[in-house]
Amino acid sequence: MKSISKERVGALSDGVIAIAVTILVLELKVPEDHSLSRDDVEHWVLLFLGWVVSFIMIAVMWLENHRQLVLASVWTMPLMIVTFAQLGLISLIPFGSNLIMDQPDSLASAITFNVIMFANGLCAGAGGLVLARDLRMQDEPEVAATLVRRSLLQVLVYASIAVIGLLGAILHHPFLGVILWLSMPLVAWFWLSGAEKSASSRAHGRTAKGNS
């Protein structure tokens, strides 16, 4: 089996991400005691912040996956392998966020959180590079070159945030990394705008070939 229908891939990723988001909501439990102490409120706020970070990151990965669906004509086996790895890492996002919110002063929890987040970004970038290779084989070098540049820059952004987050944890400021990971919607917007330009360029190139 050399290729897989991208509609099936999209349905699979949507299902996995929907389950991950549902698990996120289950972590937000309503306090049973109506007379909440300050510690209880702070704990709930941290859990909610963990939910926000996890939801944003999962949303970004969903957008990234569908960006690749727009550009891919078929889903090759290498791209499928990267996609499965990506979905597995997405399922770990709630765990990483809950861990650092539950143990904010733990260096181990900060390392786990930042490694999970960076691994998601690395896998998304790897997917872009594999897709660029496939596009190059389909005689679309310009779109492939653009995708390579954006994928490498994406990995650099994720790596920078992870390093800063780890340094913050070492310096006893673990939430520095959490705050930076909240900037991911801006990164997603950047990639999506690039995907739209690439898709438009691709469609224009096909039209030009058809008219020639």
UniProtKB/TrEMBL annotation:
User: Which reaction equation describes what this protein catalyses?
Assistant: K(+)(in) = K(+)(out)
Q: Which UniProt keywords apply?
A: Ion channel, Ion transport, Membrane, Potassium, Potassium channel, Potassium transport, Transmembrane, Transmembrane helix, Transport
- Which InterPro entries does this one have? TMEM175-like
Its signal peptide is none
- Gene Ontology cellular-component annotations: membrane
Primary localization: membrane
Instruction: Classify the source by domain of life.
Output: Bacteria
GO molecular function terms attached to this record? potassium channel activity; proton channel activity
Q: Does the keyword Transmembrane apply?
A: yes
**Membrane-spanning intervals of the chain:** 12-31, 43-63, 70-95, 107-131, 152-169, 175-192
| Membrane topology note | Multi-pass membrane protein
**Location relative to the cell:** Membrane
The entry sums up its family as follows: Belongs to the TMEM175 family.
**Could you identify this protein by its name?**
Putative membrane protein
Q: Which organism is it from?
A: Roseicyclus mahoneyensis
